[in-house]
Amino acid sequence: MKLVLLKDVKHLGKVGEEINVKAGYARNYLLPTKSALTPSPENLEVINKMKDELIKKEQELKNTAMSLKEKLTGYSQIHKVKVKEESNELFGSITLQNIVDKMKEDGHPIEKKQVNLPSGSIKELGSYNVNILLHSEVACDVTVVAEKSEEESQ
Fold first, then answer.
1. What is the three-class DSSP state of 136?
2. How far apart are CA 57 and CA 59, in angstroms?
3. For residue 68, what is the enclosing H or E element?
4. C-alpha distances in angstroms, 120 versus 19, 96, 124, 130?
5. DSSP state at residue 30
6. pLDDT by residue for the chain (154 residues), tens digit each?
């Protein structure tokens, strides 16, 4: 199915490019999220008028992501957690939602879908790298540290 992109889509193309994708992907993702339109003469006319505006908007989003990346450089989180007796295993785990909530507390507007925990939820003490996708072309890593809470050592 031929479509024209309205947004930059990772692994597909940039704004204004004509692409060929499977009908299901177009119908279930690209069209409902308004990431693409079918290349009818009316739509092509609209897209050509909007192309400069769309490119400028996409560049602004990328610049915002770059500035947030600079703020997150060197950022780390420390989670005080309870651990099982004589082991490094946590009671429960540190999940994506815990990480996102702490980032919002610290003033970083990150959504859960932007955070990637490569090894899944954190279930042991230690330091972990968490990848954050700020834009389709901008990502950064932050450190999440799981430490034993002080109240437990008594």
1. coil
2. 5
3. helix 41-72
4. 34, 9, 11, 10
5. I
6. 999 888 888 888 887 888 999 999 999 999 999 889 888 888 888 777 777 787 888 889 889 989 988 988 888 899 888 888 888 888 888 988 999 999 999 888 889 988 998 888 889 988 999 999 988 888 899 999 988 887 644 4
Let me know: does 131 contact 153? Beta carbons within 8 Å: no
Q: Which two structure tokens, joined as six digits, stand for 111?
A: 């959504």
Which domains, from first to last, does the chain contain?
2-64 (3.40.5.10), 73-153 (3.10.430.100)
Q: Report d(CA 95, CA 17) in Å as an integer.
A: 38
Q: Is 21 helix (H, G, I), strand (E, B) or coil?
A: coil
Q: Which residue has the tokens 């994506």?
A: 96
Helix (H) or strand (E) holding 111: none
- Give this prediction's pTM: 0.67
- Inter-CA distances, 111 with 18, 77, 104, Å: 30, 16, 9
